[in-house]
Design brief:
heterodimer, A: 7 helices, B: about 475 residues, two-stranded antiparallel ribbon, 19 helices, globular
Amino acid sequence: MISQQITLLLISLILMTSFLMLMQSRIFNLVKLLIWQNILLAIYLTLQLFYAVSLELIISLSITFLVKIILLPWLLWRLVSYLHLSGRIDPLINKPLLMFTGILLTAFAFIISYQIKALIGDQAVISFSLSLANTLLAVLLIMFRKKAISQVIGLLVIENSMFLLSITLTNGFPWVVELGIGFDILIGFMIFALFLIRIRTTHGSLEMRHLEKLKETV
Amino acid sequence: MNWLGLLMLPSIIAILSLPWIKNREIAARWSFILTVVSFLIALRLIILVYSVGHAVLYANQWFMCDTFGSFYVLLNTFITMTTAFYAMGYLKNEYDRSQFHPLTYRFYHTFYHLFTFSMLLVLISNNLGVMWIAMELATISSVVLVALYQTTEALEAAWKYLILCGVGLGLALLGTIIFYFASHHSLVSYQGLQWTALLKIASQLPPKLLEISFVFIFVGYGTKAGFFPLHSWLPDAHAEGPTPISALLSGLLLNVALFAIIRFKLILDQTAAHHFAQILLILFGFMNLLYAAFSLLRQHNIKRLFAYSSIEHMGLISIAFGIGTPLAYLAGLFHVLLHALSKTAAFFTAGNLIQVFHTQVIKRLRAAGVMTPLLAWLLLLSSLALLGLPPFGLFISEMLLLFAVVQVNYWLVIPLIIGLSLAFLAIFMKIQAIVFSHSSEIKTHNFSFKHVSNWPILLHLGLVTLAGLWVPLFLLMPVIMFFMGKI
């Protein structure tokens, strides 16, 4: 019973970091929060080992560990310091409104998942709705920021919630699939980094207003 | 190693060898030769699958090629081959025009094969997780190709493509996880994502969960297929990438994304949730058709024009697959085949014209009929083929679709007719202005234009005309029998 409460606490903490990211306007803090979220995710994954120890779970956990806890944060940190991103990015709409939208989306996620409560069970339904809410918050994070780097961070939060969901619901994918997904995310991130560097050398900044030329003209 | 394993070999050889070939001509030829080999293997594979009548499996059932898949594999390898042939001439002209860095060519060829290989992987993977991975790989590799010119616009288009499809694929993964959850009580771990195993036990899966997961899968892969609210990456990516890549994106990638949705729909068809998938596909199909038809009217860029036409045709195909009667499946599959062929022909012609006039803007592409008569005729014919005029095959497929829609509900014919005629008007108006106009100011840029780069266009148009005169039922019927056998 206590272990269940601990897992719920951890998922809530992960959701809370997403809310904090939504409010945060300094890029450095945004990256720090993402790293915190990854660490919380890692603790959560290790806790799953106590429920059922199997070789498959250990392999898939170690792949996730390597990619999400070691490689990605390290690369992200390198990227941020390479690009000298120390400025502020304010959301496009004011913060209380953004917070309120986030709360509404969380409530929406709960409403959706309680419709399938009978199918996934009492315990899983809360974790399911919290990870769904985390995904929706990440979409908010992508939509309401003006800089390209925050969109990348938003995508990484989406990936985090996918991992959370797959572990909560099904004890993870088969390890071959897990390996492929981790590899894809890593390659994707590197392409992102190359693009950010490229956009910066062309425009001198990462403001999204430089990337709004291809509008439909009537 | 059976034929299915062999099918992957040419692409893998290409990905490993092409980064090291420095000579541009040799690299382009080597790339073409490998695509020919891959097409021949696909031909052998489809004959095998059609004659045996059941799926070919490989590597402990991780890969599978059934009649549905082999039809797409054949189409994919064929277009990969003709595009590689077209690219030989195109890249040579492009080199004369814009002085690429030599490294760009190696980049282009390697990522070209990575892109087509990952699409092939989507078609032959039996595991829904592997399918997602291949789709993500296809996105990443095509983003690099879209940004190949490194101009401001190309970077912007590629960035938009990457972010939108990244979010979309994240949602598709969410859907896949829920799907896996729905099945993991009935199947042992690794089988829970296996398509063939899922199909057998489909009726035991809880319909409500399948519905929720299908929504996410539809939105996710639908982003890649260019469905209406999340389509905005599509015209930009088509317009800013190199022309062979626009052709591949339009002719193959959109089809492959729709293929992934249909794979899930086939499982849903066996359960109580089948109406849900049907309604979703038909609804978004009509939205796509009407939105694209209205947007076509205000396009000023020839490649964007053809990109919006792709959104329209994806809508038509989605309506056909959504209806799901044998007649509708025939219309849908036939449309997939012909749209891919004629859209690539249209993009090839547009690419050649752009190289002659050095612009994509329709207003400045004037007097093509006088300056480059052959290209002007090819442009006219390929856009008429796209619009579904009688000698061409799309006439028959759109006619069949109309009949299939009448069978379901004859009120639906009205938006279909409105969409089709608006699209006809918009494209025809713009293309005839390019072909039949006179202008004294505009001059073409002189370079030695080779007829070779028109061969693939002629081949595609010839095939589309042939299909209009003699419907290739031997190719389509086995797939329809396969669909019907499942329901």
